[in-house]
Amino acid sequence: MALYARQPPATGVAGRSIRALSAANPEAFRLSWCRRAGTTAKSDGYAAAAGTVRHDFLVAQSGRDDWYRSSSWDVVTAAEFEARLKRTRVDGRVQYIRIQATHLLDSQDPEVRQAGRVLLRRVIEADQVGTEAKAASEQLGVSLAQEGQLAEAEQALRETLRLCVASPIGASGTSGVVELRLAEVILAGGDQTRVDEVAQLLRSVEAAVQAQGIMRNVTYRFLLASARVADARKDPTAEQLASGALAVAAESTSLPREFLGRPNMSNEELVQLTRISKGR
Asked: Which domains does the chain have, with CATH numbers?
């Protein structure tokens, strides 16, 4: 299956290898790949969907403008944020709000993460069908899935797809594989009656996954979901898909730790994929 074939060694500036670039300057490498892959420097992974959302150039600015990149949130911080936000250009405010939300979503404090989701909903309401609304809606779905709120996550991801259809630039501003995220959320719900629906979502996103072939985490997620669907349907391709997912996951040992496209397989996924690959 060509989909999970290892991509040719990628090169960076002046033909230098990914490994050489990452070793020379890990931070610059990380942000460079964010730009090329259309992702954000922050991880938004969760058990069923460890993907990434698009990169913000404002986030990449270092050493300044920390007022919209706070990792904590309280009355004082919120008031300062709103005061500074009022002094910015009106047409740029939704991006500042979403960037701040992105940082809050990484918090270990559930109340701070909830504050981040409130900000994302604010972006969606203010931007309507703009790029920031699409990005915020996808981030909201991912965050809700991380919290185990699968019904709400599904609703947010379906809204993301609706926004993409309504947008003149389509899925630009999202991970590009929102259908895969939605498929993962539905699978996480464990409703076996929806397997055919998930299969359709995976078929619809396969071309986009192939286009992001260098992002091996995306390929891994696609093969994992496909193997789970095939196993549920007693499809004979399940073994091949599971073996492919395991092969892609094994590539992580040869990829730089800073590389955002590095596949990450959980112990639970390892056990499941091993079982499926052996036809059990």
From this structure: 33-172 (1.25.40)
